[in-house]
Amino acid sequence: MKNKTVALETAKWLRKRRFNEPVPSHYDVYGRLCEGTSGAEPISWNSPAYDQSPRHKVYAAPDLPLAQQWVREKKHFDVLVDREYFCGKVGKYYAKIIRLRDGVMSETGKYRSYERALEAGILKALRSM
Prior knowledge:
The protein has 129 residues and is α+β, with helices and mostly antiparallel strands. Helix content is 27%, strand content 23%. A hairpin with a 2-residue loop joins strand 4 and strand 5. Helix 1 packs parallel to helix 3 and helix 2 runs parallel beside helix 3 (114-127). The longest helix is centred in the C-terminal third of the chain and has 14 residues, at 114-127.
């Protein structure tokens, strides 16, 4: 199963927070997702080599698990996805964001899919740094 790539808004926030890991995919100048070819060497799309002009920025597009791992290891925010249960019935997904430095916790809204809840949690963590 292929992991879902982060959305453009999340990719912009990752760049703003200095994400510079090599990944195969990126968003081009027009906001289109450009997938890397299989077997190709991943590239650090957020590096200064791709910043010739502020109008021509490309944004690295990591998959959600890599973005979650980076936020946890580099920025010390843990993003956990959980599902609500009520009277034996499963509900929607939501993300808990825990700042590892002091244990402060916040939550996102409720989403129908795990991936959307994870992306919302990563975005909320990036915005709160």
